[in-house]
Amino acid sequence: MKINYKKIVCLSFALGVLVGCDDFLDVDAREKITEEDSGENLEPIAFVNGIYGMMTEWDYAFSYLGITEIISDNADKGSSPGDPGGDKGLLDGLTFTATAGSVEAMWTNWYKAIGRATYSIGYTESYGLTDEAYKNRLIGEAKFLRAYHYFFLVRAFGDVPLQHVDLTVRVPKEQVYDFIEQDLLDAIQVLPEKSQYASADLGRATKGAAQALLAKVYLYQKDWQNAYDYADDVITSGQYSLEPDYAQIWRVNTENGVESIFEVQARGESIAHGVQQYSETQGARGPSGWGWGFNTPSQNLLDAYNAEGDVIRRDATIIFRGETMYDGRVVSTAVENPMYNEKAYSSANAGAGDGDKNIRVLRLAEIYLIRAEAANELGNSDVALSSLKEVRDRVNLGEITTTDQNLLRNLIWKERRLELAFEHDRWFDLVRTGQAAQAMQANGKPFEVGKHELFPIPNGQLIQTPGLGQNPNW
Questions:
Q1: Residue 267: half-sphere exposure toward Cβ, Cα within 13 Å
Q2: Where are the extended beta strands (E) located within 227-288?
């Protein structure tokens, strides 16, 4: 059952106030709801819901695709050759600049979400709730979501402002990571386990989600022991298990299911706002199609699946021109692009603007792969191999047996690509593992070492706060 955030539909007027500010970062002071604004004394949960709501905005349907997948070797721009999708063609070709709309949109979205989270924490602390466990849970949810958005910012831009400190000064990324870690450690102490939530609240941040995200944060810093420990905590908690059928993970019947650790919630008990056009922008384009055709699987990705003999994950990830889908939908041989992203496909709501498709953010298979990578770096090949086996057994792939650390490292990285394609981590994985230049250049993309590892600070932001300075070579 999907999450039913109380009052979420009724808060549309309040959320309008929250997103009304034009300044990119100045949300701490201005993007608030007061009693005068809303006409009532809103309960703290309303503000927590508003943070989750930021992840259903249009930015996640289009700009997010551009800077997480289209830019990578997993995907092409797609659509028609003459439709650039704003800056999507530039992102695909690595020819974008600091004026790229997708980069600016996500910078803005992530800071607005952080602003909502920080305000929510303060509001909840001072509201006067007498149920300490409930109050702490709401604060824990907000801290998890704040950490989640800072994690995107620091991966994308490196040194960034900490909003509550000084919006005009970028701090070293190490300080940003310290702040993220503390928020997640705080959240772990107060958030319930997944099994402790009522069904109406399933999908909210949990202790396991905070542990899983913290493991991933440590992975990006090469803090192998902590990455291992927190991944292991999630795996051994008894809260999660792998879906037996890989293809089922993206079906409506498994949303918030046994493998799910955290998902962007598309709707409550009835379709409300939804994730704006996430499925529509990626749907097949042309005759019998249901979408715009953007963010299409690349030949490079298809070749990677075929080289591994990875038929199950290939066919669960890629919609092929002319195929009959699992729900009986026939994809015409006349659709414009040869392949589309099946992980974005919604059977019940194909083509609708406000889609009903949850976006999977953290799931157990990735945590096995985090544990595998950390274990290998720690010299524990037995755990690395057993973790890999859990993931590969599900898709009928042979057991990996090498204990050579360098070879195993590369096999784990390959496994991440095949398992997690189109789950919005490929670009950041390429950068953090040092594979970006070779992978992109092999794919015909002009990756520049010392430049493309980070996105540019948006030009619109630099006009407002020139003291931030630009990232190298932009």
A1: 14
A2: 260-264, 275-276
The two three-digit tokens of residue 90, written as one number: 């530039």
Distance CA(72)–CA(59), nearest Å, equals 18
Per-residue tokens: 309: 């003999």
CA–CA gap between residue 424 and residue 378 (Å, rounded):
27
Helix segments in 253-359, DSSP class H:
278-282, 299-308, 311-317
Residues 24 and 434: their CA atoms lie apart, in Å, by 31
β partners of residue 320: 339
* Whole-number Å distance between alpha carbons of 222 and 379: 14
What residues contact 181, with CB distance under 8 A and at least 6 apart? Answer: 147, 214, 217, 218
* Cα–Cα distance for residue pair 156/154, rounded to 1 Å: 5
The rounded Cα 318 to chain-centroid distance in angstroms is 19
Q: Residue type for 212, please? A: A
Residue-by-residue pLDDT tens, the chain, 474 positions: 334 333 333 333 233 333 322 332 333 323 444 434 444 578 999 999 999 999 988 898 899 999 999 999 999 999 999 999 999 999 999 999 999 999 999 999 999 999 999 999 999 999 999 999 999 999 999 999 999 999 999 999 999 999 999 989 999 999 999 999 999 999 999 999 999 999 889 899 999 999 999 999 999 999 999 999 999 999 999 999 999 999 999 998 999 999 999 999 886 444 445 678 899 999 999 998 999 999 999 999 999 999 999 999 999 999 999 999 999 999 999 999 999 999 999 887 777 777 778 999 999 999 999 999 999 999 999 999 999 999 999 999 999 999 999 999 999 999 999 999 999 999 999 999 999 999 999 888 999 999 999 999 999 999 999 999 999 999
Cβ–Cβ < 8 Å for 472, 451: yes
Cβ-defined contacts of 432-437 (< 8 Å, 24+): 432/155, 432/219, 432/220
